[in-house]
Amino acid sequence: DVKVTQSSRYLVKRTGEKVFLECVQDMDHENMFWYRQDPGLGLRLIYFSYDVKMKEKGDIPEGYSVSREKKERFSLILESASTNQTSMYLCASSLSASGTYEQYFGPGTRLTVT
Amino acid sequence: GENVEQHPSTLSVQEGDSAVIKCTYSDSASNYFPWYKQELGKGPQLIIDIRSNVGEKKDQRIAVTLNKTAKHFSLHITETQPEDSAVYFCAASKGGSGGGADGLTFGKGTHLIIQP
What we know:
The complex is a heterodimer. By secondary structure, chain A is mostly beta strands. Chain A has strands spanning 4-6, 10-13, 19-25, 31-38, 42-49, 56-57, 64-70, 73-78, 87-94, 104-105, 109-113. The radius of gyration of chain A is 13 Å and the shape is globular. The mean pLDDT of chain B is 92.
């Protein structure tokens, strides 16, 4: 079974702090994604990566950056956390092989910025 | 960019009845349409998906239909059971065409409630 794990289920940070959210997948997937989920808005893509050290902006990248130094690990960074970044953050991964598009999601990290 | 609209936002059906959730998309280049189920406290899990070269796909009590001309696709759940209660999301993407990854654009979700 594919497993995507996220470093924390719940996180509370203060405004202005630098925040790191970590995601690890164990199935050698090339592609990794970060989404945020807010009530009534669904999931929105922040950043994704299709290879080590490669990154692409999603629909809402402002205020975030990412790092992918190893194939299995994808980090989301909030340089200076703000209250409007309080949300559920979901990491996902997928294979690059042609015709295999399924994304596997982790359990999520609920971040509260006070 | 892509825009996905999903209706209804809440759907309540009697156990044993059918449930239908509808989505429309805007980008004609989208070619992959998955449906995810999210239970409380968990990440979304894929339940069925369809590619643009197929009009319908079925897996036991779940089916998805796609109308490329009208740019809409629907999820059908028959003989609903209490464990079907969850939030369902539709999504669309270009499926990594061009050799790279492509993120999913999600609808806002449907809270499906199965009444006993």
